[in-house]
């Protein structure tokens, strides 16, 4: 189906508490120490609530990589040029990026999506381009119009609907866009009400001088555009990117379709935060794969009430952390679905000790 913003938001319902309780009951009946798989058990229970059934299964796995360029690179906030976005986006179609190598191990299919790259890309990249060339320089004007932001959100949500029809049931979120740690830092600063310097890191290896330019650019963009922290769309259209808006749509679409979605690193988490601020029930459908080593990585997960499966100081992007978590979830699901129970093995059940 093709969503409108109104129908999309209306379709998002809270997770099913009854299904979660049934999933916990099943976990506690399995012949092993109670809750001994920790977050693996918790995440399977969360997925049961998402799917509305303790019979958890997810079929095929996908990595949705939103690709877009950002006008703010004019301010010298990045180490590499804007042309890198297009090159890496096309490399994904040749399975020649980090996330592609990792996805081949995890058994996930990679879907690069052109949301607004500086030039036209090869046909194998899904074309959902909102504006060729990317966003405007947010230090001089809003990054995009509000209408463009909504279009990007709906593009992400409608892509999730398409993937669901194709049998995909577990989605990892990724992105590719030179300059997008700058836009993400701006969004997080506004939504969390934190000083820019506290949430802004070096991204892909900025020098101290480059970091100072990045912080200054964000401060100027926020002062000029005055995004409203109570209106997530206002924030993203003024100081965000098409990749971030598209990922907001992926999170909203997964929630509307009752599908689990893995939050990747800093950019993905900033998008998830914006999606939850727009529609709080989206939070019931998020799984934290890892925590980025960017300064605000931990802060965002705390705000989303999520705990990461992996702590590995990763900050590569592309969806790499989300993909790395997929095999862990599948191991947890294997125990949940396949292991025998205390009753079947005639072992006395574990009981909670006070």
Automatic annotation (TrEMBL):
Domain of life per record: Bacteria
Catalytic activity: 5,6-dimethylbenzimidazole + nicotinate beta-D-ribonucleotide = alpha-ribazole 5'-phosphate + nicotinate + H(+)
InterPro entries noted in UniProt: Nict_dMeBzImd_PRibTrfase (IPR003200), Nict_dMeBzImd_PRibTrfase_bact (IPR017846), Nict_dMeBzImd_PRibTrfase_N (IPR023195), Nict_dMeBzImd_PRibTrfase_sf (IPR036087)
Enzyme class per UniProt: transferase
EC code(s) of this entry: 2.4.2.21
This protein's record includes keyword Disulfide bond: no
Residues spanning the signal sequence: none
Entry keyword set: Cobalamin biosynthesis, Glycosyltransferase, Transferase
MF-aspect GO terms: nicotinate-nucleotide-dimethylbenzimidazole phosphoribosyltransferase activity
One GO process term, biological-process aspect: cobalamin biosynthetic process
This protein's record includes keyword Glycosyltransferase: yes
Job of this protein: Catalyzes the synthesis of alpha-ribazole-5'-phosphate from nicotinate mononucleotide (NAMN) and 5,6-dimethylbenzimidazole (DMB).
Family: Belongs to the CobT family.
Name of the protein this chain belongs to: Nicotinate-nucleotide--dimethylbenzimidazole phosphoribosyltransferase
Organism: Candidatus Flavonifractor merdipullorum
Species lineage: Bacteria, Bacillati, Bacillota, Clostridia, Eubacteriales
Gene coding for it: cobT
